[in-house]
Design brief:
34% helix; 11 helices; globular; Immunoglobulin-like; alpha+beta; Aminoglycoside 3'-phosphotransferase, Chain: A, domain 2; 392 residues; six-stranded antiparallel sheet; Phosphorylase Kinase, domain 1; 3 domains
């Protein structure tokens, strides 16, 4: 299933989805089920949808601070869902008083006792819940970002990662300012010291995802940071590598498990299944390097004024096959273009092309068995063969 929320404003919600219907909710309460049958030729032109009848729209009354979620009937969120509606006067953030009365902002209201902010903006995790908050504090020029309800073990790992590795080495990451112990957050009694709030500096700039055409011009800067990360990871011993491993499920692991499952089920034919089995094993044999682990374009902040970049959200950092970070960053580009933009060693290009193939299987209906799919399969085997010859 693919889908996107294009617009949320007072009076209207609109977007598209390849599922037959979507469910629109406001502040956790389902409001309406919509059919996805409106004409969207722009979506069909990209190849994401088989036909143009995937659009939806509806009237929707909102007040500033309302959280709108659009999901499939099975509960899968569309991209850009949830969406926090902000009225014009609240573009810089909601007044702190809103947190005290909103059903989804209880954790933020509890944080006010430790960090007396005047305005805030909720930020959402992958499951669609409020997982972080942008805080504007009186007398401070720059806002902060607070990660909410972080398990104590995960907080210790992220603190080590930032204070002992990333920040001393000058890796382009947002600085970790402080770690707060929270007695309770929201209505759930978590117990003293069992959860933490991590407070980070706000990265300057705009997410790379919002640059539109021309975002590829920033790839060399991101690739340089990833090269620095790989070199830094190579200096760490085995014990330290284990300590840096996160508790969150790896996106790479999930991607490979799904591909291997397809191979075992013979869902797309014997030829495709054999290739998937070979590709999964080949990617798993690539060198493991210190990686961001969740490097989609929303996690790259670009400051056009200074030419600098900042990588944010290091929750899934760990040692992953070479090329995974770049493949995720370039997700949506044709595999041959991704390889051309990557450069570097054969192993890195194999990782980028191989993971790009797996992403395109998920993202593009009709990709399996297409001419482009066959070309990428051949390129994966060529790169793998060259690596084997080089090793001999």
């Amino acid at each position: 299933m693919h889908g996107f929320v294009d617009e949320v404003r007072d009076g209207r919600v609109a977007g598209w989805c390849t599922a037959p219907r979507v469910v629109v909710s406001r502040n956790g309460e389902p409001l309406i089920t919509l059919r996805c049958d409106g004409e969207r030729p722009d979506v069909a032109a990209t190849g994401v949808a088989a036909d143009a009848g995937v659009g939806f729209q509806a009237a929707l009354r909102l007040t500033s601070g309302d959280i709108v979620r659009v999901t499939s009937e099975g509960g899968w969120p569309l991209r850009h869902s949830p969406w926090c509606y902000l009225a014009e006067q609240d573009r810089e953030g909601l007044p702190a008083a809103v947190a005290w009365h909103h059903p989804e902002y209880a954790d933020i209201a509890a944080l006010h006792r430790r960090v007396p902010f005047v305005r805030f903006r909720p930020l959402f995790g992958r499951l669609g819940q409020v997982s972080a908050v942008l805080l504007v504090c009186a007398g401070e020029k720059r806002p902060r970002v607070a990660r909410l309800a972080v398990p104590r073990r995960e907080a210790r790992r992220l603190t080590r990662l930032h204070h002992e590795l990333l920040e001393p080495a000058g890796v382009a990451c947002a600085g970790l300012r402080e770690v707060l112990a929270c007695q309770a957050l929201g209505s759930e009694p978590l117990g003293v010291g069992r959860r933490r709030v991590l407070v980070f500096d706000v990265a300057a700039g705009t997410p790379l995802d919002q640059y539109g055409a021309g975002w590829e011009n920033w790839l060399p800067a991101v690739a340089n940071e990833l090269s620095r990360l790989v070199a830094l990871g190579a200096t760490q011993g085995r014990w330290r590598r284990w300590r840096l491993a996160g508790s969150k499920p790896s996106l790479m692991g999930r991607l490979l498990r799904e591909a291997l499952g397809d191979a075992l089920r013979l869902r797309d034919g014997v030829s495709e299944s054999r290739f998937l089995g070979w590709l999964v094993m080949t990617l798993l044999r690539l060198p493991r390097v210190l990686s961001h682990g969740d490097l989609h374009r929303e996690n790259v902040m670009v400051d056009a004024a200074t030419g600098g970049i900042t990588l944010i959200d290091w929750d899934r950092a760990g040692y992953l096959p070479l090329g995974f970070d770049l493949a995720l960053l370039m997700r949506g580009l044709p595999g041959e273009k991704a390889e051309r933009l990557t450069g570097g060693s054969r192993a890195q290009r194999l990782g980028v092309v191989g993971f790009s193939y797996l992403f395109q299987r998920l993202d593009r209906p009709g990709f399996v068995g297409s001419q482009q799919a066959r070309a990428l399969q051949r390129r994966c085997r060529e790169l793998a063969g060259a690596l084997s010859t080089q090793a001999e």
